[in-house]
Amino acid sequence: MISPAIEKLMKEHEEAMVIPAENVANVMKEHPLEHALLLLSQAGYSTIPVLDKEDHFVGLLSLNDIVKKMLGINGIDTSNLEELTVADVMKTDVSVMRPDAELEDVLHLLVDASFLPVLDEEGIFCGIVTRREILKAVNYTFHVFDRKNAETKVIFHANSPS
Ligand code: AMP
Fold first, then answer.
1. pTM of the predicted model as reported, rounded to 2 decimal places
2. Is 4-153 a domain of CATH 3.20.20.190?
């Protein structure tokens, strides 16, 4: 279990930990795969969330999955992408989290995923929590925790009889 003092400090960073949906590159599941390939390369990320028309999170699309589809017997062939949509190659078995998830559960899930999609109770995509943002919050927490500990020691020394 994470100590309440640590969890409280981490939560001071909570808002910064979630990248809101409007700042997250995404694709629609109905998009043609060729179009998604362009989007992915422009976004500069290897994996991005897939949404439906009502903004529900439905899966993840990775560059790797598209490249695998392009591989033919004569090497890379983009014509293999014709007729395919994002829904044909996206991964649907994905770890996700609620906005009020326990920090401990989030940390466990981020061991195996570089980011977690954040969904509300209706499955609407709210944003992502990335390993990078969590590590920044951990770094902040360690520093503040250290500083608070040092302050407590100074107060303790100041109050103790000489
Ligand atoms: P990071 O921890 O910042 O390296 O991000 C980990 C992964 O999260 C990236 O490789 C992307 O798959 C995803 N990601 C991070 N930021 C964004 C974003 N703004 N839009 C889409 N995907 C993102």
1. 0.85
2. no
